[in-house]
């Protein structure tokens, strides 16, 4: 019986020379869901992906993907996964179709089946018109879509997306999001690393925050937001005098004032607190120009957690040449 988790990581540690990049990572990802792994540069996100995809061996700990141990059964892992790394892995001199057919043949598809699958993927990723052009003529967004398509020649049980939209313009990023959403609907398990907090908020079922080689928080986007902050009401007064008088009247948790913008904000526990603020202003004829309610964002979560954690971010390891036993093509 298969585990309910497609990815299981227990006390994962990875050291490059004197630098310990991962310091005991524990992480489980349920089948058919997406987990977004957030963290600052140097936190160890890409090292986690490399350990999961058998591109590096853990110094210690255990990593299991689709039921296969990444050290004892690397072939089982590789037959279960797709990987889209930060850098586009395509032959730019060949056409998009030729790249896909080549990947199909490497996956042991027959020539007819590889050609058929390439056609399907070009249609799915809206690349049909460009399919017979050299990849070197593609835009950045088109290359990323083709790279993702290449990882899906044979539909994997688990897909690793390592910062797949880095460097894309907003429109290309949105196209990639739409494609990823469709893949989630097909039952694939996805682990996404990203520096775009909105991306994690939009796509992920769960989010884990990695800092200094450790997981410092995990939960849904809403759970993490609620854990670090509460909803606030913000009012902007019409005049300096109204701002001064309002500052004397309004009290509450997390009160913040900004004389330059004549803004007052405070935490609210219930909608009735907003009414109380408005009633106070109205009773004293204090005119305001705007009122807004704001909820914590993932940006707030990220900065609050990494600041609270206080763990210095590990520097990126010096150039490291992996041995043949560590690195192999993920086919």
UniProtKB/TrEMBL annotation:
Subcellular location: Cell membrane
Topology of this chain in the membrane: Peripheral membrane protein
PROSITE patterns xrefs: ABC_TRANSPORTER_1, ABC_TRANSPORTER_2
Keyword Plastid: no
Main location: membrane
Gene Ontology molecular function: ATP binding; ATP hydrolysis activity
Superkingdom of origin organism: Bacteria
Coiled coil spans: none
Gene3D superfamilies xref list: P-loop containing nucleotide triphosphate hydrolases
SMART domains in UniProt: AAA
Any one GO biological process: response to antibiotic
Keyword Membrane listed: yes
Keywords of this entry: Antibiotic resistance, ATP-binding, Cell membrane, Membrane, Nucleotide-binding, Translocase, Transport
Positions of the ABC transporter domain: 7-237
Alphabetized InterPro entries for the sequence: AAA+_ATPase (IPR003593), ABC_transporter-like_ATP-bd (IPR003439), ABC_transporter-like_CS (IPR017871), ABC_transporter_ATP-binding (IPR050763), DrrA (IPR005894), DrrA1/2-like_C (IPR025302), P-loop_NTPase (IPR027417)
UniProt-annotated stretches for the region Disordered: 311-331
One GO CC term on file: plasma membrane
Family per similarity comment: Belongs to the ABC transporter superfamily. Drug exporter-1 (DrugE1) (TC 3.A.1.105) family.
Name of protein: ABC transporter domain-containing protein
Upper classification of the organism: Bacteria, Bacillati, Actinomycetota, Actinomycetes, Micromonosporales
């Amino acid at each position: 019986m298969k585990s309910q988790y497609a990815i299981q990581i227990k006390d994962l540690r990875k050291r490059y020379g004197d630098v310990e990049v991962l310091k005991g990572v524990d992480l489980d990802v349920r089948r058919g869901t997406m987990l977004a792994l957030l963290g600052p540069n140097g936190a160890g996100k890409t090292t986690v992906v490399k350990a999961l995809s058998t591109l590096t061996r853990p110094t210690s700990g255990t990593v299991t993907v689709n039921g296969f141990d990444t050290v004892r059964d690397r072939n089982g892992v590789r037959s279960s996964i797709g990987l889209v790394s930060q850098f586009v892995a395509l032959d730019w001199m060949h056409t998009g179709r030729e790249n896909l057919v080549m990947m199909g043949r490497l996956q042991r598809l027959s020539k007819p089946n590889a050609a058929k699958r390439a056609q399907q993927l070009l249609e799915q990723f809206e690349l049909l018109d460009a399919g017979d052009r050299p990849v070197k003529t593609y835009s950045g967004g088109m290359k990323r879509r083709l790279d993702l398509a290449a990882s899906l020649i044979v539909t994997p049980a688990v897909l690793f997306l390592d910062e797949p939209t880095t460097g894309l313009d907003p429109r290309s990023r949105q196209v990639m999001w739409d494609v990823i959403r469709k893949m989630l609907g097909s039952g694939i398990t996805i682990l996404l690393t990203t520096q775009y907090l909105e991306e994690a908020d939009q796509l992920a079922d769960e989010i884990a925050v990695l800092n200094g080689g450790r997981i410092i928080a995990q939960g849904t986007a809403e759970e993490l937001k609620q854990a670090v902050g509460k909803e606030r009401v913000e009012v902007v007064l019409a005049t300096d005098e109204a701002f001064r008088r309002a500052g004397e009247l309004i009290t509450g948790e997390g009160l913040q004032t900004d004389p330059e913008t004549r803004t007052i904000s405070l935490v609210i526990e219930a909608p009735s607190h907003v009414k109380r603020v408005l009633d106070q202003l109205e009773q004293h004829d204090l005119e305001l120009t705007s009122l807004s309610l704001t909820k914590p964002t993932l940006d707030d979560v990220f900065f609050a957690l990494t600041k609270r954690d206080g763990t210095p971010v590990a520097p990126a390891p010096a150039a490291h040449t992996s041995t043949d036993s560590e690195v192999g093509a993920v086919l």
